[in-house]
Structure formats: structure tokens, C-alpha cells
Amino acid sequence: MALGVTAGCNEERATPIAPTATAANRRVLVVTHTTGFRHSSISLAESVIEQLGRSSGAYSVVFCRTAADVARLLTPAGLGDIDAVVFANTTGNLGIPDLQGFLDWVAAGHGFAGMHSAADTYRDAPTYLALLGNELVTHGDQAEVNARVENATHPAVAHFGGGYRVLDEIYRFAQSNRASVNLLLSVDRAPLDGLPDAGQPGDLPLAWFKTHGAGRVFYTALGHREEVWQDTRFQQHVLGGIRWALER
Length: 248
Ligand SMILES: [Zn+2]
Prior knowledge:
Elements: E1 27-31, H1 42-56, E2 60-64, H2 67-73, E3 84-88, H3 99-107, E4 111-115, H4 126-132, E5 136-139, E6 143-149, E7 164-168, E8 171-173, E9 182-189, E10 201-212, E11 215-220, H5 226-230, H6 232-246
Helix pairs in contact: 1-6
Zinc ion binds near residues 39, 116, 117 and 224.
């Protein structure tokens, strides 16, 4: 029986306090283990993500940096009090004891945020690529692009206004995933980075969000260079994406 059904009482009731997790005790597991290329921006990425959580009050972080950390933390027990996992420039096969179990954990209603080479992670695992929403093919030299904002109201990109001009390593993906995800940033012309399509018109996805079962997935292909992680506009992009992934 519902509480609060009291005969003869017509007083306004105070809104009950929901017994759910508040922003202050949201916990984010930040994974930076690599088995392939290791970006020199990783330590900066760790400190930026931690500081963004602290200054916004949105979350606190737990770091997962080594193979031993992965074996201990990316497990049902390790994820027990975690609300979202961030892959911050991870690469290769991370050695998650049960990859499908981790993907199922996201699908059960948790958050996942991938930064840059999160797309250079588990490239041989179709189930992980399905979580991520696209497949990395290659990249050229670092180059400047004018990223288009595809969603004017999303907290990850609303602050960019008309666009985001950024110098970074620009990934090429297997496809324009415009039809299967919710694009946040894209480029309509390939950058001058030495690849065969350089300078040609195209539809290159750069950041998006999607669901995975009941889980929430955010991905940005930006974040190769230290200078990008130091850019407060990029930091706002990362914070907006992680906060969105943490929503219930
Ligand atoms: Zn890179």
C-alpha cells in the first residue's frame, strides 16, 4: 500500500527525498591502461577528469591504470559502487576478465564515456565496437579542423556555439554513423593530414552519444594532444559528456 494515503488529511505534503544516489556520491572509474600506443597526454587526462569532477561536484574518481587494476576493478565486484566507466586514451586489449560481462554491466543501466583512443581499444571485438558506435580505421598527421556542432542543446557541446576549431589528431572511422548514433560534433571536410581523402568533402563523425541497452554511452574522438586537454572548451566537452553518461 502506498504511504501517505491518510484519510481526512488534505495538507500539502513535502516532496519526499528520493533515496537515490546524488551527484556528490557518483563514482567514476577512469581507465588509462594501455597495451598498444601510449599517449603522453594520459597523465594530464587523468588529472583533468579528476579535477572536473571535484570542481563541479558531479563525481569522484577511482583510477584503473594497470593490468592488475583492470583484473581487480573491471569485474562485478570492482564495479559494485561505480556509476560510470571512462576509457581515457586506453589502447589495445585491456585484459578485462569478462568483456561481455562488462558490456552487460553498461547495458544494465550504467554509464560509459570514451575519450579519443578508446576507439583504438578492443578493435578486434565486435561487441565492444557495438558499444562504442563506430570502428576506427586510421589517422594521419595532426591537423586543424572546424568541428560542426550537431546538437545545440547537449551539455557536451552547447558551449561551442557555432563550432569548435581545434588542432588534434583526427580519426577516420569505418562509416558515417549519423544514422545510428546521436552526433554531437562532425567535420564536413577531411583535414589536411596527409591521408588520401585530405581536404575532400565528407561526413566525419567526431563525437556522439547513444544508448546501450539501458546504459548511456558518450564518445569523443578528440583528446590526443596535451594542448587539447588543457583547453577549457574541451574540458567542458568532457565534463558535459561524463555528466550525461551519469544521468539516470
Ligand atoms: Zn592519438
